[in-house]
Amino acid sequence: MNIFIPLLLGIVVGYLLRNRIRASMDKPMSAALLFLIFFMGVEAGRVEIDALRLFASSIVFALFTILGSLFVALLGVRE
Predict the structure, then answer these.
(1) E-assigned strand segments in the chain
(2) Helix or strand holding residue 54 (H, E)
(3) What does the DSSP 8-state code read for residue 3?
(4) Are both 30 and 7 inside the same structural domain?
(5) Is residue 43 located within the same domain as residue 69?
(6) What value does the mean pLDDT take over residues 13-26?
(7) In angstroms, rounded to a whole number, what is the distance separating the alpha carbons of residues 46 and 48?
(8) SS3 of 57, please?
(9) Are residues 33 and 20 in the same domain?
């Protein structure tokens, strides 16, 4: 679904009704955000992955990133 159409529609409605509606939108937006996060978690939980392999490759990638950054920083200090 294209997210820009509801976004633009909301902007137009908000612009047209900005002086007429005095209700706070904080609570409905918080509830909608919590539902969004919940359903994203449900969808992520449905994905079948090998968590141990993913964790190990993430650690290796992080270590190589740190070591590469330290190497570049040491090259900059020596010059």
Answers:
(1) none
(2) helix 51-78
(3) S
(4) yes
(5) no
(6) 83
(7) 6
(8) helix
(9) yes
pTM above 0.85, yes or no: no
Pick the closest to residue 66 from 76, 74, 54 (CA basis): 74
Instruction: Check residue 1 and give its pLDDT.
Output: 61
Same domain membership, residue 59 and residue 33 = no
| Same domain (yes/no): 30, 42 | yes
Chain mean pLDDT for the chain: 88
| Rounded Cα gap, residues 25 and 23, in angstroms | 6
Domain co-membership, 43 together with 72: no
Residue for token pair 């976004």:
7
Asked whether residue 42 carries a pLDDT value surpassing 70, the answer given is yes
Q: Which domain holds residue 28?
A: 1-48
- Number of domains into which the chain is organized: 2
Per the structure block, which two tokens stand in for 7?
């976004």
Q: For residue 45, what pLDDT band results from cuts at 50, 70 and 90?
A: confident
Q: How far is the C-alpha of 5 from the C-alpha of 3, rounded, in Å?
A: 6
What the block records as the tokens of 64 is 């190589």
